[in-house]
Amino acid sequence: MKKVLEYVKPYTPRMLIGLMIKIFGTLMDLVIPYILSFIIDELVPLGEIRPIIIYGIIMIGCSAACFLGNMFANQMASRVAMMVTTDLRHDLFKRIEDLSPKQMDDITIPSLISRMNNDTYNVHHFVGMIQRLGVRAPILLVGGIIVTFTLNVKLTLVLLAVLPFIVLITVFISKKGIPLYTDIQNASDDMVRDIRESVTGIRVIKALSKTEYEKERFSEVNQHVIDNELKAGYMMARLSPLINLCLNIGLVSVLVVGAYLVIGGDTKVGKIIAFISYFHLILNAMLSVTRIFTMSSRTIASAKRIEAVFSLDEDLKKEDINEEDSDIHVEFKNVNFSYNGKIDNLTDINFALKKGESLGIIGPTGSGKTTIISLLLRLYDIGSGQILIDGKDIRSMEDEELKKKFGVAFQNDILFSASIKDNIKFNRDLTDDQVIKAIEVAQATDTVFSKKEGLDYMIAAKGTNVSGGQKQRLLIARAIANNPDILILDDSSSALDYKTDANLRKALKEFNKDTTTIIISERISSIINCNHILLLEDGKQVGYGTHNDLLASSKEYLNTYKLQMGDEHE
User: Fold this and answer.
1) Which segments within 338-390 are labelled E, that is strand?
2) Domains located in the chain, CATH noted
3) What is the pLDDT of residues 204-218, one digit of tens each?
4) Which residue in 104, 116, 88 sits closest to 315, CA to CA?
5) 255-281 pLDDT, tens per residue?
6) pTM for this one?
7) Which of 420, 387, 433 is nearest to 406 (CA)?
């Protein structure tokens, strides 16, 4: 909760102004029953209308001041809550952007989405509530008790007798409620995960007629959320009725004792009426306090989840590693890696590329091709070995320095809801000429200039208004637009026909001869002309060399070549 509270501090002056206004309005609320008691006990017996009218006008003025003060203070509270949540969401998003893929894997993306939305909304609700009720309720509660002491001490003591029971009930139920709201948030994470899967795979679901199955699957996870909500709701719902019971027992006791006092001449009717008015103010104040406790239980659970993201240490820190001069541009030395720390996903990977050379990586699905790229980009840290760029271990490089060397088109990459030009520039300092040149090299000229708007054609979110091949060519254009030192194409031409793929490879070779290129592909035709080819199987390097070398030395590569190319190689 401490980290979340830091976002409230900058708005403390504004909150203090709202606090003063709220105090003024609440005090006006406390004065009204006292004036009413004075009118009934002191002015009515006199039989004069004028003083009654004067004090009646004063009551109306107090009511107006109370209404206007509370309204203005509530508006300020809503504005502060909005600004606090805006800052919190901004920094939370920024922190999420800085998380390593491993940290994202640990927390899970659905949970991060839930924390960005549901948890920050709970904080927003609580910050607003604590300003509206957190000031008014205690003042009404304490102030009401103080004023009732001035009216009649005996009646006040009767009322105070029930307060310890109320405190015990509130503490007990709130203590039980916080863990339950944590369970609700975890269940919400599961629901968000299920929704994301269904939305992402909607075409597969419809194509395989699995709509009803997905509805049932969602119903299960949704029911889990409902069950947790009900469990927490039932627990916290006990609070108000129990407090009402205690207060109403106190009210009955007050009326009984008050009746005896009036009959005995120890108090007046006006004070009893005022006392009952104050009792209702105290009752509402206690109910408001229970609402605050209920909401605080939910907010504490949410704040812990938010702080868990902020408290994560930097995962991929820069390390001090000795550098060596080398004419090798990209090199893997005995690299081993495991996602879970138990079973190696890559074992003893070795290759070396000079500047301007190309490497083709091929192998069956799950053999570790994309994992190599993830390690080269330092999205994950290797288990052992070294990855060097120009003789410098990538762990000794600043993250921005490292990433600027690459142009990447991933296997499952994304186009954003923006124009073609903005998607290719991607907020980089690129000229229109560079964008057009990249489009030409990526064989995307027809895709772009067949549109009436040209470069200004708006791409839908995730590129849903372009075909798979058009999307891949635009992604490749984005990767090469800034003339990267190292170009990575991770199965990024799988949707292209063979002719376009061949033209693309030819254009890439001529585009920048100093660029080192790494191509991952299922097609041998896409990597056949690479200077080096790496054959993977089950995370192991089972072949390395040129195309001809592998044809001669690797049975697996030869069989794949024959299957794809239809060539009876001898």
Assistant:
1) 346-354, 358-362, 384-389
2) 2-192+232-310 (1.20.1560.10), 326-405+485-565 (3.40.50.300), 412-483 (3.40.50.300)
3) 888 888 888 888 888
4) 104
5) 788 777 777 777 777 777 777 777 778
6) 0.73
7) 387
Question: In this predicted model, what pLDDT tens digit does every residue of 122-180 receive, in sequence order?
Answer: 899 888 888 888 778 888 878 878 877 877 777 778 777 877 887 788 778 777 776 78
Hey, which residues does 408 pair with through a beta bridge? 488
Residue type, 13: P
What's the pLDDT band for 570 if we cut at 50, 70, 90? very low
Contact 49, 92 (CB under 8 A): no
pLDDT, tens only, 409-443: 887 788 888 898 999 998 888 888 999 999 998 88
CB-based burial label for 563 (10 Å; 0-12, 13-18, 19+): exposed
Evaluate whether 295 touches 126 at the Cβ level (below 8 Å): yes
Tell me how far apart the alpha carbons of residues 309 and 61 are, in angstroms, rounded to a whole number.
50
User: What is the C-alpha separation between 570 and 552, in angstroms, rounded?
Assistant: 9
DSSP code of residue 460 = P
DSSP string, 437-449: HHHHHTT-HHHHH
Please give the distance of CA 308 from its chain centroid, rounded to a whole number: 12
Strand partners, 389: 330, 392
Three-state DSSP class for 516? strand
- Is 528's pLDDT higher than 60? yes
Q: Are 62 and 32 in contact, with CB atoms under 8 Å apart?
A: yes
Beta strand pairing status for 384-389 and 328-337?
antiparallel
CA angle 250, 139, 163 (to 5 degrees): 25
Token match 């299960």: residue?
A: 220
Residue 244 neighbours by CB distance under 10 Å: 16
